[in-house]
Structure to design on (490 residues):
């Protein structure tokens, strides 16, 4: 609101947020407030679910129509322009913007805010957003007009806002970087309000008093992990008129780490949409195999991995990882620095990818056992090549005598190998128990254990010698399952 009212502020505001963080809800609230205050010029809420809201060609004509409806002076200008050229609505985007908005607005002193929500949901095949590209060329000619735009951080949107003509006049707000405490407070208020309304509407039932309890609200808030769509999906699940709301609430709370019920209530459609959009142009089975390998490694890693580490573990170029994740920034936090860790935004996404009842696209669905097996073999393959004293530490040196030990491990060994040393057995424990896989794994594990000092040295240097014990227990658990195949060799 401060940006909207202050004339010296930048002309463009990009509310950048991941999927489900509440961008459209904020845009709707913002639009209602500026409308009441007489600041709204026009708005367009994009949606891939509706043909007339996912086509770029409808945006500028719709905005022009609304401006004409609310501003008589603009109306007289646009009527004159359309009389001279009634086919303008069918021309290029740049022609539409120039003739339907820029020229008539230039002839007035109208000061207003124009809202475009969910720009990423429009069909756009340009490498840089077509709307943002043309807007950058003309926005300086509209000093009294402010554009409030929301969208996920998808490649063409990010590239569009980085264009030289647009970047200097754009204020960016990263919704997913808001203080988590503030977000949780808002979600808690939302859940309390909505569930209280449900309780009042279900007077036919004898609900506990109070319902919901404060601790139950806190547990649901924690489970939402800052994702507003998750919280709203929970509410939709609980408010079903065909079920007891308290029974549904307890069902959610009884499965603290499960997200399946929320998924069935609506969030799965969001993830399906994102995946469909991300890989709509892929048809080769081998490409989908690479995608599954990369997503599986990210989803099932016991600690977050960077692009560089993933590249080493999977044996693929970092460029392939970047390409795979290019359209998934709405659900996966992908740092620009290849050395920084990639993180899943919300636990419901990995749950979705691994569940054959929720993720119906078998080309993208992840088989946990297969992925753990691939990761186990890759980690073992890295670990087996370690040499004694891999960091060249002088004899009798204690860990506390080494300056910046973490950086030394990174420089001399690399994060991928350290990860492999730490988690190879944990992945193996969850791997397939088929004879073919077991043969590969036993051969590699035998090499690693015969060459055990370098691997244990790495664990020692990382102050994780306890992981050696966990690894041996995990290995023994898995060997119990496959020992019938390799009794003599084991």
């Amino acid at each position: 609101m401060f940006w909207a009212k202050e004339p010296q502020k930048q002309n463009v505001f990009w509310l950048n947020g991941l999927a489900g963080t509440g961008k459209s809800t904020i845009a709707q609230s913002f639009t209602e407030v500026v409308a009441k205050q007489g600041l709204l010029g026009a708005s367009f809420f994009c949606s891939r679910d509706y043909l007339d809201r996912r086509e770029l060609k409808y945006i500028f004509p719709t905005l022009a129509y609304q401006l004409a409806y609310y501003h008589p002076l603009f109306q007289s200008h646009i009527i004159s322009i359309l009389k001279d050229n009634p086919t303008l609505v069918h021309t290029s985007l740049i022609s539409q913007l120039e003739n339907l908005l820029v020229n008539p607005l230039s002839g007035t002193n109208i000061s207003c805010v124009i809202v475009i929500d969910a720009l990423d949901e429009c069909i756009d095949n340009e490498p840089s957003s077509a709307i943002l590209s043309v807007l950058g060329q003309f926005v300086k000619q509209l000093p009294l007009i402010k554009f409030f735009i929301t969208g996920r951080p998808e490649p063409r949107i990010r590239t569009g806002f980085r264009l030289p003509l647009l970047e200097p006049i754009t204020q960016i707000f990263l919704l997913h970087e808001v203080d988590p405490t503030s977000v949780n407070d808002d979600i808690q208020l939302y859940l309390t309000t909505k569930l209280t309304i449900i309780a009042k509407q279900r007077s036919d039932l004898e609900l506990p008093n109070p319902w919901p309890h404060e601790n139950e609200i806190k547990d649901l808030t924690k489970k939402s992990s800052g994702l507003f769509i998750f919280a709203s999906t929970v509410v939709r699940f609980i408010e079903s008129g065909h079920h007891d709301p308290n029974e549904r609430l307890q069902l959610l709370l009884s499965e603290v780490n499960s997200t399946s019920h929320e998924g069935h209530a609506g969030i799965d459609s969001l993830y399906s949409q994102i995946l469909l959009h991300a890989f709509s142009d892929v048809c080769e089975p081998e490409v989908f195999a690479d995608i599954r390998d990369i997503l599986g490694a990210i989803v099932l890693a016991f600690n977050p991995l960077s692009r560089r580490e993933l590249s080493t573990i999977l044996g693929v170029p970092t460029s392939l990882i970047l390409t795979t994740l290019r359209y998934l920034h709405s659900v996966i936090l992908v740092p620009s620095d290849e050395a920084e860790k990639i993180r899943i935004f919300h636990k419901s996404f990995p749950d979705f990818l691994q569940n054959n009842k929720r993720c119906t696209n078998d080309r993208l669905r992840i088989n946990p056992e297969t992925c753990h097996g691939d990761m186990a073999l890759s980690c073992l393959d890295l670990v087996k090549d370690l040499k004694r004293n891999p960091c060249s530490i002088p004899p009798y040196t204690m860990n506390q005598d080494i300056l910046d030990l973490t950086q030394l491990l990174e420089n001399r060994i690399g994060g991928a190998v350290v990860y492999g040393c730490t988690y190879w057995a944990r992945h193996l424990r969850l791997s397939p128990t088929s004879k073919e896989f077991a043969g590969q794994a036993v051969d590699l594990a035998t090499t690693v254990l015969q060459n055990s000092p370098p691997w244990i040295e790495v664990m020692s240097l990382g102050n994780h010698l306890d992981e050696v014990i966990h690894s041996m227990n995990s290995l023994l658990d898995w060997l119990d399952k496959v020992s019938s195949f390799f009794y003599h060799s084991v």
Notes: The radius of gyration is 28 Å. Residues 1 and 27 are 12 Å apart (CA to CA). The chain has a mean pLDDT of 87.
